[in-house]
Design a protein that fits this description.
Blueprint (H helix, E strand, L loop, with lengths): L5 E7 L6 H9 L2 E4 L4 E4 L6 E7 L11 H10 L7 E10 L5 H19 L3 E6 L10 E8 L1 E4 L2 E5 L1 H4 L4 H22 L11 H10 L3 H7 L8 H18 L8 H35 L4 H13 L10 H9 L16 H11 L6 H6 L22 H10 L2 H30 L6
Antiparallel strand pairs: 1-5, 2-3, 4-6, 5-7, 6-7, 8-9
Helix pairs in contact: 1-2, 3-5, 6-7, 9-10, 9-11, 9-12, 10-14
Length: 431
Amino acid sequence: MASYHLSVKTIKRSAGRSATAAAAYRVGERIECQREGRIHDYTRKQGIEETFILTPKDAPDWATDRSRLWNEVEASETRRNSVTAREWELGLPSEISAEDRSQITRDFAQELVSRYGVAVDVAIHAPHREGDQRNHHAHVLTSSRRLEAQGFTAKTRLLDSAKTGGVEIEQMRGVWAELQNRALERAGEVERVDHRSLEKQREAALERGDGLTAEELDRDPELKLGPAANSMERREKAAAERVGREYVPVTERGAAVHAARQARAAFREMRARLELARETYGIEREAGQGRVSAGLAALRAATAKDRDRNPEDFRERLARVVGWSPDQDDTPKPEGRNYARERLKEITEKDAGRDGQAAVHKLDGHSDPELGEDTRREDRKPSVNERLKDVLNKPREKLEIEDERDQEKDQEVENKREIDRDIDRDPGLSH
């Protein structure tokens, strides 16, 4: 699933860092720092897919020489606590091609050049061989001063100021989200990224009336594992894969992150099932089926193991939503849990004491006036929970037979009501 990441860090002398060392490490090259008299050699570094430098149009020719560029950056700063460079760390979508990842990174770097007039040095990294293989990312190192024909000049005060820095970074976060979403759309992906906070995304969902999305976003941000915990969890995942056992987190933070991701995946699965149930219900109603029959068809579509009768196979749909394999079996396993079925059970248990017919009518968006509070309990249909258990535990053929019987019973009741109404209208037939 596509996720958003953009972080901005500063390279400060007060923290013992230098622009020459930062550039050499990220691009995997050898750079001699003339100010420090040190050589930063990272030529043995692996996993670097592409590097390039972008500069303003009127920049001097030496700006394309990486060693000269960052030594000039260091020479332009004279204070002991100077900020010599700024790093923009970008998460790249694994769903798009390497060419597209390169292009959107280049587009973002060019936007930095055009907007702030700085020199930009880019390094695109592949996922670590022992880590998450979706973790494509880029390090975009920029000068903290404008680069003009005569060299480095004024500081980039828009980014340095407390009043404007946050606003500028937020705008660039939006630019990066837009570039990713365009690439995802070109690749035919349904997922999109969002640079806004969870709270703002939830408010926007409520404004447009999307309650399901708002509920999904009503959660705390995911914890950061940190280098130590992340390394421990990576090793445990690799060990679990080697012996073919289920991965169990070994740190508290890892357990919290793992549980949060499982919960989000379960919610997305439930949402996909609910959408399919609604679509199936609408199709059945348009075909002339009654509310009960259409409701049972919707439940079968959302929970039954056999998906062959659906116009669009649920497994394929779920695979597009959460990235699961269409061949994956969704039945409960001894070592796992079927979170969708458990969540569905929780929802239906809330209606255990209520009328099943009224619950089905909710799919229509209204209630039946004939099923008021004065209606006797024995005249009502079984609860949603009871019907759902029948659907889950009985074979499809038996369900179809019982559905036909229910229709016959409904027709008999309707005929009886019609006869009673005829008796009431004709005085000669009254008792």
